[in-house]
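Crash report, auto-generated. Payload:
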Amino acid sequence: MSETYDIIIIGGGVVGCMTARFLSRYKLSILLIEKEIDIGSVTSAANTALVHPGYDPVSGSLKAKMNVAAVPLWLNLSEELNFAYERCGDFVVAIGQEELPQLDELVERGKRNGVTGMSIVSGDEMRKREPLINPAVSGALFAETGAMCDPFGVTLAAAENAVMNGVTILRDTAFEDFIIQNKRIVGVKTNRGAFGCRWAINAAGLYSDVVMHKAGVRPEFKITPRKGEYLILDRADFELQSVYFPVPTEISKGIMATNSVHGNTILGPTAHDQDDKEDKTNSESGLQEVLEGGRKLIPCVDPRHVIAVFAGLRAAGNAPCETPGVDYGHDFIVEIPATIQGLVNLGGIESPGLSSSPAIALRVIDLLKDAGEKLVEKSDWNPIRPARPRFRHMTHAQRQAVIEKDERYGRVVCRCENVTEGEIVAEIHSPVPATTYDAIKRRTWLGTGRCQGGFDLPRVTHILARELGISETAVSKKGGDSTFLLRPTKQAEDDHD
Amino acid sequence: MTSEPIPIICVACPKGCRLEVLRSEGDILVNHAGCKRGQEYARGEVTDPRRMVASTVKVLNAIHPLLPVYTSAPFPKGRIRELLAEIRKVELKAPVKINQVVIENALGTGIDVVASRDLE
Amino acid sequence: MTNLHYDVVVVGSGPGGLAAAISARQNGAEKVLIIERDIELGGILLQCIHNGFGVEVFKEDLPGPSYAQRFIQQVHDLKIDTLLDSMVLETTPDRRLFITNRKLGIREIKAGALVFAMGCRERTRAQIRLPGSRPAGVYTAGTAQRWVNVEGYMPGKRFVILGSGDIGMIMARRLTFEGAKVERVLEIMPYLSGLTRNYVQCLQDFDIPLQLNHTVKRIIGNNRVEAIEAAAVDEQRRIIPGSEEIIPCDTLLLSVGLIPENELSRQAGVRIDPVTAGAFVDSRFHTSVPGIFSAGNVVHVYDLVDWVTQAGLAAGKGAALFAQGKLAVSDKVVRTQAGENVRYIVPHTFDPNLLAEEAIPLQMRVKQPIEAPVWVEAVCNGKSVTRKALPYARPGEMVTLNLKPDVVDSFRESGTLTVNITER
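Recovered output after restart:
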């Protein structure tokens, strides 16, 4: 084993990175491994980008507890980590009189879960607050703690702060197996060799079942990926005032229409179970379902408004709720299993996983303390992760100042989102460096606008090659063989038939 | 003996007229031509088809790695691949001036390949 | 921050912008400035290395860079100022612009008259909501064109092209020239969307199959495109079940339409026509905001660059006159209206007094192709004003009807002029 750590976190999604960040305040050596080329690039990068108030999960479930416990943490966290977070409140919108009674049920559930700041608004009030809402709205539940965030931004900020405080992050590093001695985990095997540890934390999301099975834990537990397809609409066409859910169904919160921290409207998600943990394709029927679902809330939605489509997979599990008397079979797992030592096991962290992530991280710390781990705080722990300059959000005077310091901030590379060369270069040399086009895109929002990278792509591949000291033909979209360019134009290739 | 009519879409101008050429013992008959240029184009297409060819050549020490070039006159269609192979061999040094000859008398056709722009 | 002042400021240095700047200078504007985001003048013409430019303007068949250079030379000869590598961040209705540049930082520029010549952008995969995975290897034709012709890289070796737009067909030939294999061009409509001559010279010449009434049903491949699933569509453009076919390829190019790039125009309060996605303009390309003109593909998407140049010349003249306080304000206005089988007409209005001095070209596109002789007829108050015969009418090819000074008497009053394109 090349190196040994106190703790190895398996998985660099929002839960793994948040856990790394909160653990980084203690005198521990921590390694986080992520199988993808970048952190936060699977479920954490493709979701509805919301922090939920907590009225939706089944009362008594760990989901409800974690969600409600996390809500008060977010404001402070956003100030410390400097990610985009807007507490605009959210609405569950009843269309027609027949949906109205369900709002009362949600309010009751919310109260049981400990949610504060809920109120019922009338249809008239709703139409006033959101002129684009379906005029058939009969009323809505307003929850003031609902918030929009940039989920990748949250994950990245947590990861960077963890790195600032001594955590090692290895990307492109896939978990293969545990090294177990005398029913105790003493290490982790990866595609990049083995690493020793005293504790392993399973934060593997869609693969959390596979990981825990390698430790012999919960053989009956199974992740069934649930695909959610989304549409993003151009903010030039319209901007919603807030976040709108339909009244929920048995299996999901339904197709919602929400503003985002970037001002673009997001519609989605669908909810379809599948076996494949990698299939994040969009389907014609899924996109149609999103359009129709979105129109139920916002009737003016038109296919012409669409500037991007995407799909994400929720790590939906089948863990029974452990609270006596609560009959619920899809709860979170946050535990130290009795059957093996040295494992903190997280599983089935689907929605509201992003919302719950800070509370899950704190619960992991409590579990470690309960297990007798002496956690000693570092005297020099720095909870602040500074934001990097964002040209788009600056006044002209601020822009002038930043260009005077570094002229590369004066060159706009993405015309739709006004992202500059200076920002791109800064991301390539940041604590968790961006090394691919998608990594740059998620960090800067370059290429997310109307032209979807048509203008910036050749420029960004050029900058990436230059800054990373690689050939332009080696620059990729998301690592592996996802390269953009084949060969120089004038380098002849073998004649094809 | 009159041949089967050969359908030709005229590209002498953007209109794209659909012509028909009949060959009859050395005579060439063009039907449906909207203008004289179309007549000539159709005759050329069956006797000696030619195309303007545009490509790029490598250039060193310039703001771009490639210089756009084109043929000074329409080039025999059947020899375009050969010409492209010749063009691929060229490597210039900046500065280059527009219309500067890049390949003289390409493949002995009397047609030059010239620079499409200044490049420094 | 030093503020700059110019009589006429032109945003964009493609064919429309170059022509507008030249024309503004030639029509009396003293201080003229072109702002260009790239490091040199010329816009997209510089990556359009193929021939076919200049047949109308110069009676010559030039490649794009040569066509551009003729105008660039004039810009320098006329001592027109240029700001390269500069992006306009913001415009206001009172014609102030804020730009960013590495060396200058943020600058405010005040324009006596402003010409928008930002051109157009390509429709993307998302705008046609192409299902499937999201791998590397899906590019707009124009992005591929920049890579192959300017940056010097081939983005793939086996291509499928969706859309029979001109750039797509031209890229099919270009890629073939550089050793790639173009498997297929798919077009969802029952007719070609680009020019026929490009079909002949770019596809037919190289035996590249074109399939009309076909589209991409799905993109396959996680990291890099591995194949696409093609399918035939019915008259409603719905996929016909059973017609699916997997075509192995590593790159999908999209040539599915162009959209005028009007974000700056919107900021400045310019009214946009939802049909063209460009500004409402009069025959001088004056927009709804006084002193703001709009030239070229930013108004509507042209099929020939020569027409873009002519539009730029008209807009530049208008801008110069406005900047000098010489632009006549008319008491009369004629509105143009798209009639039978006409999708839109540019300009949207014109001043009939102007028609006494100069011809006014009406440019339009048809809704449905008519592969038979047609009349293009302008009607005002129920009376035919002028008409012209064409051998056919196709959506991919713009139709121009010149209103000549001799029909000025048809427009004694303000009114509406309707153009119909019908079978003869």
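Post-recovery validation: Chain A touches chain C through 64 residues (CB under 8 Å).
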